[in-house]
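Model it.
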Amino acid sequence: MSSASASTAKSPYADEVVRGGYAKIFEGHTVFLTGGTGCLGGCLLYKLALQLPTRKIFVLVRGNSQRAIGKLRESIPNHAQAILATNKVEFVIGDMKTVNFGIEATILQQLQDQVTLVIHTAAKIKLEGPIRDALENNCLPALEMARIASRFRRLKLLIQISTSYVNSHRPDGTVLERIYQLGGKEDAEEELASILTLGTSPHAGKFSSTYTQAKHLMERLLLSRFPLLPILLLRPTIFGPALRYPYSLYGPEDSTPLNKFTRLWFSDRGATQVWHATEGYKTGANILDEIPVDLVANACLLHAAARTTGIVQIGSQLYHPITFDEIFRMGLENATPAAQREFPKIIFTEDRSTPQCFLAELIQVGTRNWLFDCGRSYWLKQVSGPLSMQVCKHEADALNLTRTHDVLGALKEKARI
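Modeled.
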């Protein structure tokens, strides 16, 4: 599968999905889901179990099923029992850092005989840390998942969750739904071997984080090692809290970076923060590319129904973009006068030799302006029903206002304590 064909290939069943046929398609699906207790994985599990007539859902978990059920009840308290009551969910005990994920032979045989769709969402999103650790958590398990899935007799599609920031080595501007090589035709296998044996990478420091670098290498290795496997690399931008399902604002703070960023910014009382303005701007007019996690789940499942392969990006081009300046403005406009006086003062500078504040160094993508092309998903806007991607600007603004009030309220309560 070449990067060119991955970018332009038409989804085989897109027309059928648009006509409302995705429910019938899922009647024939048995799904193997990883990361089912995480932010995106939990949202997918909710939709697969309660919004779609999925035949069966195998969910890979660590430890034991009771631990997984506990996590599910914590993240989706009002829906966990309903999900379990469908009797469609079967927890599979395993460990992604072992061969065959440590799955028992009899269970593995069931997967090989029954699974038609694999959705691999499990990841460890840690922006700082050694590149080797990032590979062991976010690259090698994906390769093992593909190796396992290559033996699934009824497999129609393997969806691997990646990130749009695999291309954070690129300059600002349009980023297409394709693989961008890092100069020349370097061998991904040699790069992997170098990192695993020596702990070093020839591309250290070129990406926004070792996490995004590991995902970049994962994509290249996955497509080169498994050219005949039907693979979809789904690249979301920044996860935002859910718009509608499982409930409005669903999503833990650690999985919704702009919520965490907003809290950190608001709580830096009385400070003066220096931020580098994005090239070509004097303020924070650059887009912070965020999309609600339930819309990412919808896009994932619609592409699954259409059996899309290759690379698709899912970001604010399919939603409503928000800028740095707008986030700051919402905070100021909705805080009390007393709180406003304590908010940090933001200074944007075009002089990149000037040291930035800690928060700016931590969130490097905040001062960049990549425009992620989502052209292969425009057709999703035509779909109605529970997997609809249609959102009016008023609904998006209301969500942002509610989350801002929540963050301000939590900070006020903390200050009172």
